[in-house]
Amino acid sequence: MSKLALLILSLPLSCGAADFLRDPLVSQEIAKLGPEDPNVPRGPLHRAGQPCGACHNPEGIATSFTVAGTVYRDPKAKVPVADVVVLLIDAEGTKFTANTNCVGNFYVKPNEFSMRPPMWTSVQMGDVPFKMESPFHREVSCAVCHFDPDGPDTAGHLFVADDPTTFASIPLRPCGPADGVKR
Ligand code: HEC
Ligand code: HEC
Fold it and tell me: Is 146 in the pocket of ligand 1 (CB under 6 A)?
């Protein structure tokens, strides 16, 4: 067979192969996140800081989420903060708030809030909200854009305080019975 014939044959094939390729790519993405921490059961406290939506999406391997993420105390240290208010406002102006748990994770299920993009968001602990100026669209995970290390491809992890003189005043709540964790 000539090279040209091979090329022509491979064109429609490569387009049709996109769906087929998606699964291996998704499995690779999931594999890159590594195994579960054996000390943390699958559930609200697992995989803090990871892009939850890699697994928690309508075609994914776990319960679908509308959005999910992890919030830390400050831009540098990854100190998890509980009871942060994550405000979401969709294209119709509908508001929804989610609260972080003791590892800083929050997640919203479609039966609680199925947003109409674009979405605006802020995170707040205390008086001053940190607002994201631009909206986001269909991303489930805040962490697809907010990850470490800080650099040109990322907005850095989510945080609730950027003035070091206030860090000590941010209350930290260790995981305990309220989070389903036995001590
Ligand atoms: C590598 C894949 C993967 C990632 C990443 C992941 N999870 Fe999960 N998660 C699972 C699996 C698998 C289960 C168990 C099956 C299920 O409950 O859907 C689960 C279960 C859960 C549950 C219990 C489900 C329910 O219906 O109550 C919650 C809550 C949860 N994960 C939150 C998160 C959060 C928050 C993140 C990100 C910080 C995250 N997960 C990241 C795979 C993942
Ligand atoms: C598509 C990429 C993207 C997604 C998804 C995304 N962000 Fe952002 N975020 C950015 C960028 C870029 C900035 C900096 C510019 C700006 O504020 O628009 C930012 C800034 C922010 C800020 C302001 C931080 C500061 O320094 O004041 C907050 C708060 C924030 N995002 C929260 C969130 C939350 C919560 C989610 C998930 C519900 C999320 N973001 C999802 C890209 C994203």
Answer: no
